Amino acid sequence: MKAVIQRVNKAEVIKIDSGEVVGKIGMGLFILLGVEIKDSEEDAKKLADKIVNLRIMADKNGRINLSIKNTTKEILVVSQFTLLSDIKKGNRPSFLRAAEPKRARELYDYFVYSLKNHAIKVETGSFGDYMKISADLDGPVTIVM
Questions:
Q1: CA-wise closest residue to 66 among 53, 51, 47
Q2: Omega of the bond prior to 140 within 30 degrees of 0, cis?
Q3: Do the Cβ atoms of 64 and 56 come closer than 8 Å?
Q4: What pLDDT is recorded for position 134?
Q5: CB-CB contact of 83 with 2 (8 Å)
Q6: What pLDDT was estimated at residue 141?
Q7: Is 72 considered catalytic here?
Q8: Amino acid 139: pLDDT
Q9: pLDDT single digits (tens) 116-130
Q10: DSSP per-residue letters across the chain
Q11: 122-124/74-79 β-pairing
Q12: Which end of the chain is more exposed for a tag (fewer CB within 10 A), N or C?
């Protein structure tokens, strides 16, 4: 699995075809998640546990010192298979490392479930749909895992 984690003041996901807001948070973490062929439920749980314990949230003095578990902040997760692109040969990205949509959806859902098990409010994008994403970055703080 590959995740890009960004600390945000707010973030929102809108389905392009319907204009419906499917996920929206205030301050917290915006996560782009790519699922690889080789990934398992254990990988999803480990990644979720690591993310909720990452000390990347600001404390009362503005220092990066707290995990999201130590705050009342929220998480927005969006599936992003293009994180797994391979551009070593030529100019057209290959996505052969990305899991098939059915399996990717299962692990994406399990990842979200694992985050929610930490009593954190979690919103999601619309898996497999074309979306418009707005994110007001805070810091900016961006971590790639």
A1: 53
A2: yes
A3: yes
A4: 97
A5: yes
A6: 95
A7: no
A8: 87
A9: 999 999 999 999 899
A10: -EEEEEEEEEEEEEETTT--EEEEESSEEEEEEE-BTT--HHHHHHHHHHHHH---EE-TTS-EEE-GGGSS-EEEEEE-GGGG-B-SSSSSPB-TTBPPHHHHHHHHHHHHHHHHTTT--EEE--TTS-EEEEEEEEEEEEEE-
A11: parallel
A12: C
User: CA nearest 6: which of 82, 41, 57?
Assistant: 57
CATH number of the domain where residue 51 is located: 3.50.80.10
CA atoms within 13 A on the CB side of 109: 8
Number of domains in the chain: 1
From the list 72, 82, 124, 142, the catalytic residue is 82
Distance CA 78, CA 127 (A): 7
* pLDDT tens string 53-85: 999 999 999 899 999 999 999 999 999 999 999
Q: What is the pLDDT of residue 75?
A: 98
Q: What range does the domain containing 60 cover? A: 2-144
Asked if pLDDT for residue 90 goes beyond 90, the answer is no
Taking each helix axis from N to C end, the angle separating 41-53 and 101-116, rounded to the nearest 10 degrees, works out to 40
Q: To which residue do tokens 């859902």 refer?
A: 109
CB distance 78 to 13 below 8 Å: yes
